[in-house]
Amino acid sequence: MIAIVDYGRGNLFSVQKAFNFLGTDAVITADIKKIEKADKVVLPGVGAFGDCMNNLRAAGLVPVLQKAAKIKPFLGICLGLQLLFETSEESPGVRGLGVFRGRIEKISATGYKVPHMGWNNIFIENVNPLLGKLPERPYVYFVHSYHAVPADPSIITSWTEYGGKVTASVGQKNVQAMQFHPEKSGAVGMQILQNFIDW
Questions:
Q1: 116 - beta bridge partners?
Q2: Is 147 a catalytic residue?
Q3: Helix/strand/coil (H, E, C) string of the chain?
Q4: Of 36, 52, 78, 125, which residue is the catalytic one?
Q5: In angstroms, rounded to a whole number, what is the distance separating the alpha carbons of residues 168 and 138?
Q6: Catalytic status, residue 116
Q7: pTM, two decimal places
Q8: I need a surface site. Which of 1, 52, 61, 177 has the fewest CB within 10 A?
């Protein structure tokens, strides 16, 4: 069973619908015990970094997510990627989950509209269990104003070009995360989610 973490923010139902389309049981839940018992965990997210972290803390979900990220397949989507880092320029003074070292910075793209919204191709940097079986430079769907700047650049698994290099996905061991929305990225996104199911 896949637990889709519900903390009051996020594209929960579209993510669940995508997994259900692929024939997999995915449950939207804020129940700590269900998340602990799940085989895999998905952390989606839409909104502001600080608001989402406050909601996670209020729901008592921070420790269970930090533990899950150490022991089971874990997927962050969009803001869910950003929450895995230590801090964000969007919400100074608010601590993230700290699964990855580094920070979230606003996209600096002179002459480009921010937020970055729409389809862009990604350049896959590292062999990754979720980015296999994809076409060369696949197109995926983004909606974001901030991106990850990891302390260790080697965890960047793909990037996109938007007035410069913008982190598109990161991953290390059992934790993988996408800044783009696989559930809104057509056949490419479905393949990524299928890779997560099979992982």
A1: 144
A2: no
A3: CEEEECCCCCCHHHHHHHHHHCCCCEEEECCHHHHHHCCEEEECCCCCHHHHHHHHHHCCCHHHHHHHHHHCCEEEECHHHHCCCCEECCCCCCCCCCCCCEEEEECCCCCCCCCEEEEEEEEECCCCCCCCCCCCCCEEEEEECEEEEECCHHHEEEEEECCCEEEEEEEECCEEEECCCHHHCHHHHHHHHHHHHHC
A4: 78
A5: 12
A6: no
A7: 0.96
A8: 1
Catalytic residue selected from 116, 144, 147, 181: 181
State the catalytic residue, choosing from 52, 90, 116, 183: 183
Cβ neighbours of residue 33 closer than 8 Å, sequence gap 6 or more: none
